[in-house]
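User: Last request for today: this protein with N'-Formylkynurenine, please.
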Amino acid sequence: MRDTDANADSRQVDLDDEGVHWDQAMSYGQYLNLETLLDCQRPLSHEHDEMLFIVIHQTSELWIRLCLHEAHGAAERIRHGDLRPAFKMLTRVARIQEQLIKAWEVLVTLTPADYLSFRDELGQSSGFQSYQYRELEFLLGNKNARMVEAHRAHPHHHERLLAVLHAPSLYDITLQLLGRRGFDIPDDRLERDWSEPYSASSLVEDAWREIYRDTETHWDLYELAEKLVDLEYNFQKWRFSHMKTVERIIGYRRGTGGTGGVSYLVKALDLQFFPELWSVRTTI
Ligand code: HEM
Ligand SMILES: N[C@@H](CC(=O)c1ccccc1NC=O)C(=O)O
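Assistant: Here's the final one, the structure of the complex with N'-Formylkynurenine:
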C-alpha cells in the first residue's frame, strides 16, 4: 500500500511554520568553536580504533575541565560558609563523574590487539601527564609534590599545579569551616604546609561523628560530608574501572609513562581524600 500524502507530510517537521532563523549573526558552530574542536582529532596511525582512543581522552579531559570549574567554585563557597551553592556544584561534579565512569564501557570495546595496533605511536605519553587530572587530585586533597615534576617542560601547567599544590584542598577548607563552627579541630590541620599530604586526626573524626550522630543540629555539615563522600566514592569507582580496563587491554605490561602499569594503578586505589569521613563509619 502506498503512503498517503498526509502520512508522508507527518514524517517531516514543517520548517516554514517553525520560524527557523536561517541567517544568524552568531551560529551554533561559531559559539561552540566547533571547527577548532573537531579539528583536534588527529590519529597518528591509519588504525580504525585510534579515533575512539582519542575521543575518549578528549571528552574525559573536557569533563575534567568542568569538574575543576565546579570544584574550585564549591571550595570558594565553602570558604565563605555559603553551603547551598556549594552543594549544587558538588552534586554536578558527582554527575559528571558518572559520565566519566560510564565512558569506560565505550573504551572496553577496544580489544588488546586493536590497542596494540597503534600503541607504539603513543611513545612515552601517558595519562600520568594529564595536568588537569593532577590538579583535580590536588584540589581534592591527594597532594604529592613529585607529581608536579612531570610538567616541568610546560611552565604554564607547572605553575598552576604548584599553585594548587600549595593551596588548601577542598577538605582543608571544609575542616577550617568546622573549626569556625566551633568543632575542636587541631591547629596543625587549620594552618599547615598545604603541599604536604593530609594525615588523619582523631579529633577530626570526633567532629564528624558528632555531626553524623546529630544531623538535626548540624544538617548542612552532614549534607556537606555526604557530598564529599559521594565525590570520593565516584573517584574510586573511576580509578577502579581504569585499572580493570587497563588490565583487560594491556594485561601486566608496563605503562608508557614508565610505571609498572596495573600494579601502579592498584596502589593509587589506596589514596584517600577524606580519611575521617570513611573511618568515622566504623566508630559511629
Ligand atoms: C587503553 C586505554 C588505557 C590504558 C591502556 C591506560 C593505561 C594507563 C597506565 C598503564 C597508567 C600508569 C602510568 C603509565 O605508566 O603509563 C595510566 C595512568 C593514567 N591514565 Fe590511563 N590508560 C588508558 C585510558 C585512560 C583514559 C581514557 C583516561 C582518561 C583521561 C586515562 C587517564 C589516566 C590518568 C589520569 C592516569 C594517571 C593516574 C594516576 O597517576 O593516579 N587513561 N593509564
Ligand atoms: N599508559 C598507556 C598509554 C595511554 O593510555 C595513554 C597514552 C597517551 C595519552 C593518553 C593515554 N591514556 C591513559 O593513560 C599505556 O601504557 O598503554
